[in-house]
Amino acid sequence: MKLTTAVLAAGAAVSLTTAVVGAARLRQDARHQAERNEAIVTRNQLDWLAQMSTDASLAKPWVPEGMDVEEYMQLLNANQLICMLSLRDRLGFVRDGQLPFYASMVMSSDVCRRYWHRFGDLRAREAEGDQRAEHFTHVLDQAAKNQPHAQPAAA
Predict the structure, then answer these.
(1) What is the average pLDDT across 29-40?
(2) Distances in Å between the alpha carbon of 75 and those of 6, 9, 117?
(3) Whole-model pTM?
């Protein structure tokens, strides 16, 4: 092999390696940006839920028909907890096999079960088409159904 051929082959190998590393880096950057965006959107939602669940004057216009504002504020507080768990799951901070445990802990709370009874179907519709969100919703639904006192309290 001539020296020029060897130099060209080495240059091509270096270029190919650089391109592969660069592509991997771009994919990683895109994934991290998506995670940052997810965290920012969730932070906005959690801030809104925090305000709504503590200030009746803010919550009142959003109260579903037939529900009193105090009950709605409690349900929003339960939603806040579920949203935090959902974010942890989506960002990969819930290890495989832990989600059913966390879901069971969340659904051991009467207010979380009431929230799920009232808004679980809405969350399922929101999750449609997102495999991870569908799994999360299914696991929470199963946990709610498995609780010994899963009957919703009268509002």
Answers:
(1) 85
(2) 70, 65, 10
(3) 0.77
